[in-house]
Fold these 3 entries.
Entry 1:
Amino acid sequence: MDIMLVVIAALQAYVLGSINFAVIFTNLFTKKDVRDFGSGNAGMTNVLRVAGPLPGILTFLCDAAKGAVACFIGRYVIFDYLVKNYPDRADFYLPIYGALFCGVFCMLGHVFPAFFQLKGGKAVAVSVGIFAIVDWRCISVALGIFVIVLLISRIISISSLIATASMPVCIALFQRNTGEKVWVSVLLTLVMALIIYLKHIENIKRLLKGEEKPIFGKNKKEK
């Protein structure tokens, strides 16, 4: 029964992640498929370029919301229930593990959406919603880093990557005294970071070549 609940939670998180708001809002506002334009990525940054600020903002908010809902399911519904009903396994079924576990599957659904030919986004906005539920201190630090790097570089991808890299460190620091096996949370956070980095491989290549486009202005090679 407990394993079935975990499987159901994972499936729910994946299905929720598969609702791709970048595709939905771009089509709603422009009748276009965002994946056919710009970088081809079904995420907020490409929506901003293809459809404009309002669809981009809506995409970010809804992607973050689905990450938060997935974590809420994992933390406060499934794993909370398991801890109460299997107290002898409480160390294994800690609610934070449920939040991060469902967060991983929500990100996988976002990256490989079942409803959109497995062509999704890069899951950065989804991770914001996930860590808003997991630990508000972690997401506060990451968002602060993101804003600072963005103001300096004007490039969303490098800002996202550096902020993402801070998350496992933040989890290790902020969760170290909670009585849990913090390495489990760090490991799940590293999996999330790996998903984001793998989806940014092309961005990383362009960054190394100095060809990545800033969100405003021009890059060095275009000047």
Entry 2:
Amino acid sequence: MKSNIVIAVLVLVGIILYQSLFVVSEGRRSLITRFNKIYRDADSKIVLYEPGLHVKFPFVDKVMSIDARIQTLNSTADRFVTSEKKDLIIDSYVKWKIVDFAKFYTSTQGDRLKAEERLRTSITNSLRSQIGNLTIKEIVSGKGGESASEGVSDAGASKREQIMQNTLLETGPGAEKNLGIKIVDVRIMKIELPNEVSNSIYQRMRAERESVARLHRSQGRREAEAIRAEADKHAIVKIAEAEKEAKFIRGNGEAESTKIYGDTYSKNPELFDFLRSMDAYRSSMTDGKNVIVTDRDNEFLKYFK
């Protein structure tokens, strides 16, 4: 009987000890609620338990564990309107962490989803306000993949980077004041055009390229005609010069030939007459059927006598 009582007492003590101790893991923080009210110290400050082994009142205190690491809020792709009244589909995400656990608990009752919903609304409103003042070209021409860290400022930054910086600066103080969380980073991951806008832009780009192509083809034809006209002009000039040179050479040749004939004739007139007559005979009697009718005293037949 006594042994049973001892066992029961030991079991009860073990249960009380188990209920009196709790462990806070690394990367987390814990708060205690007592009778559904958050536990505070003598100065009415909420007690925050760091990683390690801690003690609580058994059966009365309830431990609420909160993740203290950096969290990622992936927002769904949302539609934004630019200053041109054109739609853009923008996908972004936010890095955040809890810095004031008491504020976080009192504002959200420790509900991470509730905190992210309020944070998403704040980020989306800031992005919508900024994008509404920019054109598609200004937004899309930014360098891809830039991030905005707190306090970063660059006068030469792209429009997209400025959007992220401004969003961080606009929403960061309010998130820390109202939710007890710090926004570490805001990043735009992807910017897309709706299908109907993409099709119209592609059609406009195609029309612009076709217009440029037609202009180039027209300029090419004009330049080709100019080149052909220049080539024809050079050809006519070259041919005229060549004909002029040929006439000059032929004239010199004929003059030289006449001179040679004259010199030769003066040296032996009889031989020259004989050879010239032979050439005349050969030309007149090539086919053997020619009939020559002439006077017997004609000089043409003098070598037949």
Entry 3:
Amino acid sequence: MGMSKYTELYGCVMSYLNAQDWESAYSLVKNGDLQGDGNATAILAEFYLHGVGVPEDVETALELLERAISRGCMEAADKLGSLYLVGEKVPQDDRKGVSYLIKAADMGDPLSMGKLATAYLNGVGVAQDYAKSLEWGQKAAKLGDKNGMEIVAIIYDDGLGVYRDPMQAAHWYRECLQQDPDNTFDMYRLVVCLADPFEDFNLHPDYSMLEEAFSWASKGVEKGDLDCHMMVAWFYETGKVVDQDFSMAYKYFKIAADNGHEMSIELIKRYRRNIFGNYYLPQ
């Protein structure tokens, strides 16, 4: 997707502000507003919302955002929706927030689609509805929204209103990690989808799937993720794509357990140490 007109204009405004040229920034959006440009109107609202070079005036900012919406600016609808959901500058109101997100999503805004997917998943401002969550998540995901991708992955991973499909989930977790390579939540979830360590999926993963899973688990360990420590321990315990090594398994379980990881605290209790200092699992 190319850069939207709103994003392009916002970038110009920020360039002026970063150069401490407030007058040029303000004039750009003020003149745009006078000429009926909804994008300029929405950005002008930000000046009043946060008191950038003008006195903070939330009422004026809200009026400008409403005007921008009427002029077709989907980013303005997303902004208003987010303000009400969070309760920033306005009284917190989930229903009102979601109503603006729906406006923005209907106008084609991927960010709002992803937020709507989350709202329906968790029942925030609307009745919980996994089908609608999946519908909006898929629309957002296809437009490149990371939040939408993650919602779709979670729905297929957990089987929320659909048959569990670890391969569909894995696809979208990979897409998420393309955008956010350091996200250990997605790493761990992807590892579980590929390796099926808890035998939830009856998957029987092949070597390449296990190899990919171990790679992601190792990356998660580098980031300090405790779930991924547990998974690397599982690989060493089972000897899948690595040489079976109970001492290495114990090492990773212990790191996770020492940091409060509840499942690792339980799993590590099974281990014993022989006279040579090596760990093993009693038969």
